[in-house]
Amino acid sequence: MTEAIKPNVNRFIDACYKLGLNPKPILQEMAYSVADLLSGQQTLSTRDYLQFLNAMSDHYQRRFLAVELAELMDERDIGILIYMLRSASNIGMVIQLLSRFISLVSPSAEVSLHEAENKQQYLLCYSYPGLPADLCAQDIEGTLAQFVMLFRQVLEQEHWQASRICFEHQAKTDSDLLNYPFAREVSFATTCNGLYFDKQLLTYPIKSRDLKLLQILEASAIESLEAIVSDDIVTKVSAYIAASSDIAKLSVERLAKELGYSRRNLCRLLAQQGSSFSKLKEAELMKLACDSLLNSRASISLIAQSLGYSDSSAFNRAFKRVHRCTPRQFRESAQ
Question: What is the pTM (predicted TM-score) of this model?
Answer without folding.
Answer: 0.68
